[in-house]
Amino acid sequence: MIQITTNNDVMIAVFQQDINFETTRIMEEILRHHTYSNISRLQIDLSAVRFIDSSGVRLFISWLYPLKDRIHIEIIGASAPIKNVLSICQIDQFVDVK
Amino acid sequence: MIKITGKITENNYSKNIAAMLERLNQYIVLTEMEQYALQLVLWELISNVIRHSTIKKADVLIHLSTEDITIELIDHGNGFDWRSQITKAPPSLLAPHEGCGLFLIQQLATHVTFDDAGKKARVIIQRAKIEEEFR
Lengths: 98, 135
Fold this sequence. Notes:
The complex is a heterodimer. By secondary structure, chain A is an alpha/beta fold. Chain A has a single domain, classed as STAS domain (Transcription Regulator spoIIAA). Chain A is built from 3 helices and 5 strands. In chain A, strands 1-2-3-4-5 form a 5-stranded mixed β-sheet, with no helix packed on it. The model of chain A has no long low-confidence stretch (mean pLDDT 96). Chain B has a single domain (2-134), classed as Heat Shock Protein 90. In chain B, strand 2 and strand 3 form a beta hairpin. In chain B, helix 1 runs antiparallel to helix 2 (32-52) and helix 2 runs antiparallel to helix 4. Chain B is globular. Chain B starts with a strand and ends with a helix. The chains are: A alpha/beta, B alpha+beta. The A-B interface holds A 20-22, 51, 53-55, 57-58, 61-62, 65, 79-82, 84-85, 88-90, 94 and B 14, 32-33, 35-37, 39-40, 43-44, 47, 51, 90-91, 93-94, 96-101, 103-104, 107, 133-134. Chain A: This is STAS domain-containing protein.
């Protein structure tokens, strides 16, 4: 569902399926069990994600907004429509969407 | 004009959304943005019924023309209080648990209406608008 690896102060989170109201609850649990105090950079890979709904948007906001002031966060591999959704919801204001 | 219908229940909604989109694709090639917008609107309307309605069943009708895509959803349950949910503001960064499904629908659609009881939704997506926003 989410593959998370940490190398030194960089965490990489690879989402492996769509992020919708069926999957966000389990994803939230997975993300809650990781600590973010020792990292300075978080890279989120959405290459395998075809669809994000409003539950996915809420997941990103609740997960990432509290981290934004001390961690550089970037999203890579997002499709054009997913980038559009992230932009509409202003997530790109505190996350570097590449 | 192309019409696609679907009968949605708690047990089949995910497969039914995919099946409706697949049937549409047999008639017309939608752009990536159109496909996503249609899927997102369907998903948000239907997941709202599945999560909140008293009877987790709905009928869906999609009309597709060269100018726009119209989605009609009839909730078999009690409907919902759409007036308290409808907002033009983006989701709050400080209150991430507030819903933003209707906000997303409004951003992608040109026309969003509900009947008084919140049981019948009608959403029109102007196909040119999607491509314009994408640019």
